[in-house]
Protein backbone atom coordinates (compact mmCIF):
# COMPACT_ATOMS: atom_id res chain seq x y z
CA UNK A 1 0.00 0.00 0.00
CA UNK A 2 1.38 3.39 -1.00
CA UNK A 3 2.43 5.59 1.92
CA UNK A 4 2.72 9.04 0.38
CA UNK A 5 3.63 10.52 3.75
CA UNK A 6 7.13 9.03 3.46
CA UNK A 7 9.55 10.50 0.90
CA UNK A 8 12.97 9.19 -0.14
CA UNK A 9 15.16 11.85 -1.79
CA UNK A 10 18.20 10.59 -3.68
CA UNK A 11 21.14 12.56 -5.00
CA UNK A 12 22.43 11.04 -8.26
CA UNK A 13 26.11 11.72 -8.95
CA UNK A 14 28.34 9.75 -6.60
CA UNK A 15 25.30 8.42 -4.76
CA UNK A 16 23.38 6.37 -7.29
CA UNK A 17 26.10 6.69 -9.93
CA UNK A 18 29.77 5.88 -9.42
CA UNK A 19 31.03 9.18 -10.84
CA UNK A 20 30.04 12.59 -12.20
CA UNK A 21 27.57 11.63 -14.92
CA UNK A 22 27.59 15.08 -16.52
CA UNK A 23 31.26 14.87 -17.43
CA UNK A 24 30.72 11.41 -18.90
CA UNK A 25 27.69 12.62 -20.87
CA UNK A 26 29.48 15.64 -22.32
CA UNK A 27 32.63 13.72 -23.17
CA UNK A 28 30.73 10.87 -24.82
CA UNK A 29 28.64 13.39 -26.76
CA UNK A 30 31.36 15.59 -28.26
CA UNK A 31 34.53 13.50 -27.91
CA UNK A 32 37.67 13.99 -25.85
CA UNK A 33 39.39 16.73 -27.95
CA UNK A 34 36.37 19.06 -27.84
CA UNK A 35 35.76 18.18 -24.18
CA UNK A 36 39.29 19.21 -23.26
CA UNK A 37 39.12 22.36 -25.39
CA UNK A 38 35.85 23.36 -23.75
CA UNK A 39 37.24 22.75 -20.27
CA UNK A 40 40.19 25.00 -21.12
CA UNK A 41 37.86 27.73 -22.39
CA UNK A 42 35.88 27.57 -19.16
CA UNK A 43 38.92 27.05 -16.94
CA UNK A 44 38.80 30.47 -15.27
CA UNK A 45 35.24 29.82 -14.07
CA UNK A 46 35.96 26.20 -13.11
CA UNK A 47 39.05 27.14 -11.09
CA UNK A 48 37.15 30.00 -9.49
CA UNK A 49 34.39 27.61 -8.42
CA UNK A 50 36.94 25.17 -6.98
CA UNK A 51 38.39 28.04 -4.91
CA UNK A 52 34.96 29.23 -3.82
CA UNK A 53 35.29 32.49 -5.76
CA UNK A 54 32.73 31.72 -8.48
CA UNK A 55 29.23 30.33 -8.06
CA UNK A 56 29.14 26.63 -8.97
CA UNK A 57 26.14 27.12 -11.24
CA UNK A 58 27.88 29.92 -13.12
CA UNK A 59 30.95 27.73 -13.65
CA UNK A 60 28.87 24.77 -14.77
CA UNK A 61 26.97 26.92 -17.27
CA UNK A 62 30.28 28.26 -18.62
CA UNK A 63 31.57 24.72 -19.10
CA UNK A 64 28.41 23.55 -20.86
CA UNK A 65 28.34 26.68 -23.02
CA UNK A 66 31.91 25.94 -24.12
CA UNK A 67 31.19 22.28 -24.85
CA UNK A 68 27.59 21.64 -25.92
CA UNK A 69 26.41 25.23 -26.34
CA UNK A 70 24.47 25.77 -29.57
CA UNK A 71 23.38 22.16 -29.80
CA UNK A 72 19.73 21.75 -30.78
CA UNK A 73 17.18 20.05 -28.57
CA UNK A 74 16.81 17.33 -31.23
CA UNK A 75 20.57 16.74 -31.24
CA UNK A 76 20.68 16.56 -27.45
CA UNK A 77 17.72 14.17 -27.38
CA UNK A 78 19.64 11.87 -29.74
CA UNK A 79 22.76 12.27 -27.57
CA UNK A 80 20.72 11.33 -24.50
CA UNK A 81 19.32 8.21 -26.17
CA UNK A 82 22.84 6.97 -26.93
CA UNK A 83 24.05 7.86 -23.43
CA UNK A 84 21.18 6.02 -21.76
CA UNK A 85 21.83 2.95 -23.86
CA UNK A 86 25.62 2.85 -24.03
CA UNK A 87 27.13 4.61 -21.01
CA UNK A 88 24.81 5.36 -18.11
CA UNK A 89 23.87 1.74 -17.21
CA UNK A 90 27.52 1.02 -16.42
CA UNK A 91 27.67 3.95 -13.99
CA UNK A 92 24.79 2.83 -11.76
CA UNK A 93 25.51 1.31 -8.35
CA UNK A 94 23.41 -1.88 -8.06
CA UNK A 95 22.97 -1.54 -4.30
CA UNK A 96 21.54 1.96 -4.67
CA UNK A 97 19.17 0.90 -7.40
CA UNK A 98 18.06 -1.87 -5.05
CA UNK A 99 17.52 0.76 -2.36
CA UNK A 100 15.31 2.79 -4.69
CA UNK A 101 13.27 -0.35 -5.36
CA UNK A 102 12.98 -1.06 -1.63
CA UNK A 103 11.43 2.35 -1.03
CA UNK A 104 9.08 1.89 -3.96
CA UNK A 105 8.05 -1.56 -2.72
CA UNK A 106 7.13 0.03 0.62
CA UNK A 107 4.97 2.57 -1.19
CA UNK A 108 7.22 5.55 -0.43
CA UNK A 109 7.45 8.47 -2.84
CA UNK A 110 10.91 8.49 -4.41
CA UNK A 111 12.38 11.71 -5.81
CA UNK A 112 15.69 12.32 -7.56
CA UNK A 113 17.33 15.61 -6.49
CA UNK A 114 20.41 16.36 -8.57
CA UNK A 115 22.64 19.11 -9.91
CA UNK A 116 22.95 17.20 -13.18
CA UNK A 117 20.56 17.99 -16.05
CA UNK A 118 17.05 16.63 -16.16
CA UNK A 119 17.71 16.20 -19.87
CA UNK A 120 18.96 12.66 -19.24
CA UNK A 121 17.97 12.14 -15.61
CA UNK A 122 14.22 12.23 -16.34
CA UNK A 123 14.21 9.37 -18.86
CA UNK A 124 16.57 7.32 -16.69
CA UNK A 125 14.43 7.92 -13.61
CA UNK A 126 11.27 6.94 -15.47
CA UNK A 127 12.95 3.69 -16.54
CA UNK A 128 13.43 2.66 -12.89
CA UNK A 129 10.07 3.90 -11.62
CA UNK A 130 11.08 7.27 -10.15
CA UNK A 131 8.27 9.68 -10.96
CA UNK A 132 9.77 12.98 -9.80
CA UNK A 133 13.06 14.57 -10.83
CA UNK A 134 14.25 17.89 -9.36
CA UNK A 135 17.34 18.89 -11.29
CA UNK A 136 19.30 21.54 -13.13
CA UNK A 137 17.45 22.48 -16.33
CA UNK A 138 18.97 23.71 -19.58
CA UNK A 139 17.49 26.75 -21.33
CA UNK A 140 16.83 26.76 -25.08
CA UNK A 141 16.62 29.82 -27.33
CA UNK A 142 14.00 30.72 -29.94
CA UNK A 143 15.65 28.33 -32.39
CA UNK A 144 15.43 25.50 -29.86
CA UNK A 145 19.17 25.45 -29.25
CA UNK A 146 20.86 25.25 -25.88
CA UNK A 147 22.09 28.78 -25.26
CA UNK A 148 24.52 28.03 -22.44
CA UNK A 149 22.39 29.14 -19.50
CA UNK A 150 20.03 27.40 -17.11
CA UNK A 151 16.26 27.68 -16.99
CA UNK A 152 16.37 27.13 -13.22
CA UNK A 153 19.14 27.58 -10.63
CA UNK A 154 21.78 24.89 -10.30
CA UNK A 155 20.19 22.23 -8.07
CA UNK A 156 22.95 22.01 -5.46
CA UNK A 157 23.19 22.61 -1.71
CA UNK A 158 20.42 24.85 -0.34
CA UNK A 159 18.67 24.77 -3.72
CA UNK A 160 17.93 21.08 -3.21
CA UNK A 161 15.89 21.86 -0.10
CA UNK A 162 14.12 24.74 -1.85
CA UNK A 163 13.15 22.45 -4.71
CA UNK A 164 11.88 19.76 -2.34
CA UNK A 165 9.79 22.22 -0.36
CA UNK A 166 8.35 23.73 -3.54
CA UNK A 167 7.49 20.23 -4.74
CA UNK A 168 5.60 19.10 -1.65
CA UNK A 169 4.17 22.59 -1.03
CA UNK A 170 1.93 22.57 2.05
CA UNK A 171 2.07 18.78 2.42
CA UNK A 172 5.56 17.99 3.81
CA UNK A 173 6.34 14.32 4.35
CA UNK A 174 5.82 12.70 7.71
CA UNK A 175 9.23 11.07 7.25
CA UNK A 176 11.99 12.19 4.89
CA UNK A 177 14.90 9.94 3.90
CA UNK A 178 17.85 11.58 2.16
CA UNK A 179 20.77 9.93 0.36
CA UNK A 180 23.88 11.82 -0.74
CA UNK A 181 27.63 11.75 -1.04
CA UNK A 182 29.02 15.29 -0.86
CA UNK A 183 28.83 18.87 0.40
CA UNK A 184 26.09 19.51 -2.14
CA UNK A 185 23.79 17.25 -0.13
CA UNK A 186 24.45 18.77 3.30
CA UNK A 187 21.29 20.87 3.56
CA UNK A 188 19.09 18.09 2.26
CA UNK A 189 20.58 15.70 4.81
CA UNK A 190 20.00 18.20 7.61
CA UNK A 191 16.37 18.59 6.55
CA UNK A 192 15.81 14.81 6.59
CA UNK A 193 14.65 12.54 9.40
CA UNK A 194 17.00 9.82 8.19
CA UNK A 195 20.11 10.85 6.27
CA UNK A 196 22.84 8.74 4.74
CA UNK A 197 26.01 10.21 3.24
CA UNK A 198 28.32 7.84 1.38
CA UNK A 199 31.41 7.03 3.44
CA UNK A 200 29.78 7.95 6.76
CA UNK A 201 28.20 4.68 7.76
CA UNK A 202 25.96 1.86 6.59
CA UNK A 203 22.57 2.35 4.98
CA UNK A 204 19.86 2.74 7.60
CA UNK A 205 17.17 0.05 7.83
CA UNK A 206 13.79 0.85 6.33
CA UNK A 207 11.73 -1.20 8.77
CA UNK A 208 11.55 1.51 11.44
CA UNK A 209 10.60 4.67 9.56
CA UNK A 210 8.38 5.68 12.48
CA UNK A 211 11.29 5.58 14.95
CA UNK A 212 12.92 8.78 16.29
CA UNK A 213 15.19 10.73 13.98
CA UNK A 214 18.70 9.42 13.54
CA UNK A 215 21.44 9.93 10.96
CA UNK A 216 24.34 7.88 9.68
From TrEMBL:
The keyword Oxidoreductase does not apply. InterPro entries: HAD-like_SerB, HAD-like_sf, HAD_hydro_SerB1, HAD_sf. It comes from the Bacteria. SUPFAM superfamilies: HAD-like. The chain crosses the membrane at residues 35-54. Gene3D superfamilies: HAD superfamily/HAD-like, SG protein - dephosphorylation function. Keywords: Hydrolase, Membrane, Transmembrane, Transmembrane helix. It holds the Pfam family HAD. GO terms for molecular function: hydrolase activity. The keyword Membrane applies. NCBIfam families: HAD-SF-IB (TIGR01488), HAD-SF-IB-hyp1 (TIGR01490). This is HAD family hydrolase.
Amino acid sequence: MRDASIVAAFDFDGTISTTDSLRVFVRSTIGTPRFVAGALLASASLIGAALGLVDRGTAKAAFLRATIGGRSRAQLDADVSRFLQDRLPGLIRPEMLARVRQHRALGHRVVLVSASPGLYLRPWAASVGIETVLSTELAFDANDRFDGVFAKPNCWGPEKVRRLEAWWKDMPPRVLFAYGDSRGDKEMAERADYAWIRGQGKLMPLTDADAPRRTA
